Amino acid sequence: MDAPRDDRYVSGYAAGPPERRSISPNVATLPHHRHEPELTRRSVTGSERKEHCSTRFTAEDPARGRRRTLPGMRAVVITRPGGPEVLELAVVPDPAPGPGEVVLTVAATSVNRADIMQRKGFYPPPPGSPEWPGLEASGTVSEVGPGVTGWSVGDAACALLTGGGYAEKVAVPVSRLLPVPGGVGLVDAAGLPETTCTVWNNVMMLAGLRPGETLLVHGGSSGIGTTAVQIARAVGAVVAVTAGSAAKLERCAELGASILVNYREQDFVAEVKAATGGRGADVVLDNMGAKYLARNVEVLAPHGRLVVIGLQGGRKAELDLSLLLEKWASVHATSLRWRPADEVARIVASVAEHVWPLVADGAVRPVVHARLPIEDVGEAHRLVESSAHVGKVLLTF
Ligand SMILES: NC(=O)c1ccc[n+]([C@@H]2O[C@H](COP(=O)([O-])OP(=O)(O)OC[C@H]3O[C@@H](n4cnc5c(N)ncnc54)[C@H](OP(=O)(O)O)[C@@H]3O)[C@@H](O)[C@H]2O)c1
Fold first, then answer.
1. 140, 156 in Cβ contact below 8 A?
2. What is the mean predicted confidence (pLDDT) over 205-211?
3. Ligand 1 in reach of 289 Cβ (< 6 A)
4. Could you tell me the distance, in angstroms and rounded to a whole number, from the CA of residue 117 to the centre of ligand 1?
5. Who's near 8: CB < 8 A, 6+ residues apart?
6. pTM of the model
7. Among 1, 224, 267, residue to substitute to test ligand 1 (most atoms within 8 Å of Cβ)
8. CATH class of segment(s) 195-333
9. Which CATH number describes the domain made up of 27-192+341-396?
């Protein structure tokens, strides 16, 4: 993948980014760390956990010019590319906060579709990011690095990560940290950063959805979809959704969608045009990519904006540009994980300013399908892959 380099996480795990490896972390080879006396990557369950977690590491600490002892922490590692069975709990080195970072002791993380791609070997973490998955987490600040202001040990927070959320602790730059919003529990807050930042950035900051306009959300019952429906309603837009069953469409309607399309039985272009007097959707938030490109352009209203954020239906398609010309329409595509740090900081700040008040007053809520213990991570991945869920599947520590 040709993605821009990002320097965040420079110091979370070492003075420089860990060596890039394609599969799972071998703790013994992480720079600046060595294990003692015995460290193997294997499943850790129940009574074994305490014993495993008492394993300690010595780590060179260049900032202080001496070695110090770090306790290990539990993390879910990807032992090789494959199915949910390749996920294992193991002991890995504790993170240490670098300048401008805190360490979050994780209460919960969530399963995102990107974690499944990473597990299959298709979506490696950016340089400097922990090798273990997890794009968001909630928890309590347990260490504060040099230069950090505004955050203290004991603060409850949630964080947008480039990886590493499937662990007891994660180092995170404060520019990626958000307070736990009022009315949301610490665990459920783990389901907010990735969806709110993705939706707010694409639908509002990029596509500029306005009150009275129509937003079409594909996969309306997904983690992203349930958030998009609520945010769009909160800003006064009309919301259309696609979903694969009547039950899921009903959940979308409860959240505020008013145009409901079962993509297995109906044509979304015809349905959305019929419901909007032939005008179409002003903004389309798309998770399907190639498979829907032509129809997404067809469903756009004049001056419409299509934003592609997922490629579940493939990456290559032909586009008749004359259709864009005729409608003065545009096509955008973004990803969050590989985004430069300053852009992510702007997105997180905008979410804190505009979305957090909507969460605090109850207009936007994390929709949580299940909260499973981290030991059930394989089951959680199977659940998300089955698409039986509505909203987020969380993993708790
Ligand atoms: N670019 C970014 O920055 C970014 C960030 C986060 C997420 N994403 C992407 O956003 C999408 C949603 O993520 P998530 O974690 O919320 O996923 P998720 O909960 O696993 O949901 C996947 C969704 O895809 C829907 N779907 C499957 N086939 C469909 C079809 N033919 N037409 C319409 N919808 C269909 C499913 O609907 P049914 O269950 O009803 O079949 C389900 O709602 C993913 O593609 C993910 O990669 C992108």
1. yes
2. 98
3. no
4. 12
5. 126, 128, 129, 162, 173, 176, 341, 344
6. 0.85
7. 224
8. alpha beta
9. 3.90.180.10
